[in-house]
Amino acid sequence: MRLFSLMFLLASGVVQGAEFGVLQADKSSIAFVSRQMNVPVEGAFRKFTAQMVIDPARPEAGRAQIEIDLASIDAGSVEANDEVKGKSWFNVREFPKASFSSTSVRPLGGGRFETSGRMSIKGRALEVRAPFTLRQEKDVLVVDGSFPLKRLDYGIGSGVWGDTSVVADEVQVRFHFVLTPTRK
Fold this sequence. Notes:
With about 180 residues, the chain is mainly beta. The protein has a single domain (about 20-180), classed as Lipid/polyisoprenoid-binding, YceI-like (Lipocalin), CATH 2.40.128. About 10% of the residues lie in helices and about 50% in strands. The longest helix has 11 residues, at about 1-10.
């Protein structure tokens, strides 16, 4: 009976006990929702890299290093994109990249986890926590999560844009990563 079970697992294509770490960029995303005058505004970053290693059998040993090309922002229109790339917002000329580097992962129960690490934007590095889920689908691992980011903590949106009645301070960041096994 054990031999039959083993053959079934191998034939099913499910990767057991493997580390996942090859990002499928075309299937992955980093998006956000901000609020302007209390109206949700959705956007995304189109270019980013992620070096991640996650073993579904030991997710607490996982690690991640993510780098976002801030000039790749899609805030919904050419005018909005130009505005948020400017000095009052991301100042992409001086600070072209944002990054996240994980320091730990802990289980929350029910298939949920939380990573902690340093988020660096515009020369400011702050500790963040991001809850996420893992879902294995055949030969890929799907990582989904979100976390709130206080934009003013990073100096994002100065001058008239610093008024939180116009643009809310809290921005919800959402991530969706699709990973395939790391080949050794």
